[in-house]
Each structure stands twice: as structure tokens, then as C-alpha cells.
Amino acid sequence: MIQHLPKHVLIAGAGITGISCAIALRERGVPFRIVNKGRRVGGRMASRIVRDSGTTFDGRVFDTGASYFTVSESEFASVVAELETAGVVQPWTDTFHFADSEGIAGVKTGPMRYRAESGIRSVIEYLARDLVIEEGEITELPTSERLALCMPTPQAARVFPQASVLSSAVWEPVISVSMLFDHAHWSDFDGIFVNQDAQITWIANDGARRGDQAPALVVHMSPVLSAVHLVDPSEVIPIAIARVQKILGFDEEPTWSHAHRWTFAKPIEGTTSPAPDFVLGEVSLASDEFSARPRVEAGWLSGRDLGRALAAGG
Ligand SMILES: Cc1cc2nc3c(=O)[nH]c(=O)nc-3n(C[C@H](O)[C@H](O)[C@H](O)COP(=O)(O)OP(=O)(O)OC[C@H]3O[C@@H](n4cnc5c(N)ncnc54)[C@H](O)[C@@H]3O)c2cc1C
């Protein structure tokens, strides 16, 4: 009897989607390798280590990309339960404040948000702990492997231009500004959604998120302002500081700050079709955008579904 061996898969991207795809392939015995642009895994689940701040906070970690994640699907819930047992993630809060341009206006409860004490990147480091990740950028189609592009479609389209016609998602940029203060000039809060403000959309209390209670905030700039300052993200730092001072009601300046640019931060809305429509012959796509609710969980589900489809010969 002729046995068809599964074809080797090249996974490009070691964010939650690529790692979830790899785990699904490993479970089904399909050979694969993972190549990730950049030295660190995690993609948009990113944490930055403070260096040269001239304070005792050197070595502290800020979450500069995804702020937290939520859980609704049962298999993802099992993964999160494992992460919780391993001490990687912790339930954070179901209550955030909301504000307008003038200041805090109220509180709003929602689903439980999860945080990672060592920084959200540690989620990916844990999930990828037994995987070999090669550092490099895939720039062309491989000749003898199936290619799984696990990244936002605008990035996938640099390798495989046809990718752009498969997704109607429109991506918006975010510049996130991390700040350290000499002490907390605010009363306790976890996060603040800032509504109807032209400049910022969100303030996270990174001290509450980390659990170290450090006087640390992360501010997300609005998509429009971010788009204007993508070339030099540090230009938005004074704007972020002024908005935080106004909304939280203090005048002190941070002792350290840093701006990080996400050109493709979030799809404005999920895209046309979820799995398995994304499997295109020898090249496949997966990412958080293939969902009505693009987020960390959506990336995990998209990667898992792609891995299973590839293992099934889809
Ligand atoms: C500012 C911000 C705030 C967010 N807030 C939240 C939130 O609160 N809750 C939530 O659930 N989600 C949030 N998200 C979204 C969440 O981060 C994503 O849904 C999730 O991380 C998607 O993971 P991914 O693996 O699909 O893509 P990515 O994390 O973008 O990973 C793609 C990887 O592919 C690599 N790559 C790109 N091109 C190549 C190439 N040619 N070759 C090799 N590797 C390549 C990249 O370096 C990267 O490591 C936020 C995102 C941002 C940026």
C-alpha cells in the first residue's frame, strides 16, 4: 500500500497564530519548521525590558502590544488553564474605567481579562518552549515545502502578493507609549478606555497588570494620530503625557518614556472568511483577522484550524 507522507510545512511567524499552528501540526505528526522575523517570539504579544532608565526599574518589563486577552472558546480555555497552572498568566480584572477628554467618567464590567506577570510575551515563550524557532525573514515562496504565513495579511502580501485579495481587513496602526514615574500620581485603576478623544484610546496601569505596583503606565495613541507619526513615533510622547496628566489629574512628568510603533496593530474589523477558505494550494494564511473578533484568542484559533487543515491535506 502506498502511504502518502504529509508534506513538510514552513511556518512564517512566531506570534500566537504561528505557534498554535505548529502545536496543531506537532499533535498530528506533520513535520514543520518555524521561521520568525526578529530575535524574539511573540509578535504583537510584546513586552519591552526597561534599560538605561537611571532608576531602580531597569530590567522591568512593560507590555507594549496586546494589553490582555479574554477567553471564550473551550479549547483555548484549556490552554489558558494550563498557562494559569504553570504560573504564566493570571486573571486580571473584569472591570475597567472609561473616560472622555476631560477625565474619568465611570466604570464598566466585562469578561475576565488575563494578564501575564512576566509580560505578555511570556505566554508565547511558554507555548513555544519545546519548539525550535529559526530567526529570519521569509521573502520568497519555498520550493519544496508548504508555506503557512501566520501574520497580518499586509505582511503576508510582501511574500505572496495574492494574499491581499483574500482579506478585506483594513488595518490600523497604534503607537504605544510606556512611562515610568517617581511614584503613582493616580488612585487605583487597572485600565481606562478613553472614548471620543482624538489623541489617545487607552491607558493601562502596567503596575497593576504586572502585579509589582510600579508607577508605570502604557498609553495607546489613536489610529489617526499614530498614522501621522509612524515615521518618528517618539514625537507623540509629549502628547501622551499631556493627555494622561489631564485625564488622571496631575502635573508631574515621567522619569522615563518610550514609544513603540505597530504599523499593523489591529484590523478594524474581522475579515471576510474564516477557515478553511484561507488554504490556497501551497500557500496558506492565518491570523487574528480571520475572525469577527480579531484578538489573541482569534489568532490561536486561526493557527490551530490552519494546522489541522494542513494535516488533513487541505
Ligand atoms: C497595540 C496593540 C494592542 C492590542 N490589544 C489587544 C488586547 O487587549 N487583547 C487582545 O486579545 N488582542 C490585542 N491585540 C491584538 C493581538 O496582539 C493579536 O491579535 C495577536 O497577537 C495576533 O497574533 P499573530 O500571531 O496573528 O500576529 P503577530 O503577533 O503579528 O505575529 C506575526 C509574526 O510574524 C513575524 N513575521 C512577519 N513577517 C514575517 C516574514 N516575512 N517572515 C518571518 N516572520 C515574519 C513577525 O515578526 C511576528 O513575530 C493588540 C495588538 C496591538 C498591536
What Rg, in angstroms, do the CA atoms define?
20 Å
Number of strands: 15
- Portion of residues in helices? 25-40%
Structural class designation: alpha/beta
The sequence of SSEs as H and E is EHEEEHEEHEEHHEEEHEHHEEEH
Low-confidence stretches: none
Binned strand content = 25-35%
The small-molecule ligands in this entry are: flavin-adenine dinucleotide
Mean pLDDT over all positions: 93
- Count of separate DSSP helical elements: 9
How many structural domains in the coordinates?
A: 2
The CATH C-level class name of the largest domain: Alpha Beta
Net shape: globular
For the terminal residues, how far apart are their CA atoms? 22 Å
Structure overview:
This protein is α/β, with parallel strands linked by helices. The chain contains nine helices and 15 strands. It folds into two domains: 129 residues, FAD/NAD(P)-binding domain; 172 residues, Polyamine Oxidase, Chain A, domain 2. Helix content is 26%, strand content 28%. The strands form three sheets. The protein has a seven-stranded mixed β-sheet. Strands 7-2-1-8-15-14 form a six-stranded mixed β-sheet, with helices on one face. Bound molecules: flavin-adenine dinucleotide. The site of flavin-adenine dinucleotide has 38 residues, from helix 1, strand 2, helix 4, strand 9 and strand 13.
Summarize the structure.
The chain is an alpha/beta fold and 314 residues long.
List keywords for this structure.
single chain; 314 residues; alpha/beta; FAD/NAD(P)-binding domain; Polyamine Oxidase, Chain A, domain 2; 2 domains; 7-stranded mixed beta sheet; 6-stranded mixed beta sheet; 9 helices; 26% helix; 28% strand; binds flavin-adenine dinucleotide
